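Supplementary Methods, section 5.1.

A reviewer requested that the exact input to the structure prediction be made available. We therefore reproduce it here, unchanged from the version used in the analyses.
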Amino acid sequence: VQNCKYRSKQLSMRFIIFITTLLAFMWSCYWFIMSNKYSEKVSIWSDIGSASVSASLSKIRGFPNRFDTKITNLEIKQASSEPIKIDRLDVMRLSYNSSHYIFAVKSIENIFGNSFTFSKGLASAVNNGEVAPTISFQGEDVFIDKKLILEELNFKIWPTTDLSKLNFSLFAKTASNKDGEIDLSFQGQIKLNSDFNFDSLIGFISNIDMLGNISGKLFVEDIKGLDTVVRKDLNSWKIFLKSDSPEKIPSFIQNLNMVVLN
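The structure derived from this sequence is encoded token-by-token as follows.
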């Protein structure tokens, strides 16, 4: 009887080991097949090798649960300004969830005519079956043109039923200055001159050229919400602020070159 029980346990263990090995083998095959498809998808979406985009794409890593790839020396031509340059862009996705992408970046040159660097810069794009993905960004120690401007920057862009309009919210904490550290928040909408494009990297960047304006309310500490419009004025971007008490606006904001007080 004891021998029968022992053999039964052995058979059970062998069966468990066999099933575990089989599942691991099947998952490995799935991961390698899907990682190749994912690599092709990233390459096609990023337009690498086209006339407008140049970059190097690394092999897919992240086995067994993720697809991670690295894009280096990324340069994207813009219609009306200098090319956008990103030294390194990490693209990550869970192998079992194709609706959520994460992007990590440390520096971006020539966005709205400025260069940005971060000690931490993470963006995510989540598609919940809506007409466009929800895009979120978290940044720490934000330098603009090599000057520390913000200790913290968080923003979110999500779709409306009209693809030429996007909801936009922002929270930021300024770096320490003579006004101290200031909390800023914004609620409003982005208006485009055409429908929002996320089908390719070139299409996504083209949204910048299609940007009509950003309008809404800017809240600075306990100051009443300021009517705010961000739009291109001739060849540069300007932030137009309307306030009944402009003297209450921190000098940090008033002294920004792109700010115009009404």
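The helical segments are 2-46, 201-209, 251-254. These observations are discussed further in the main text.
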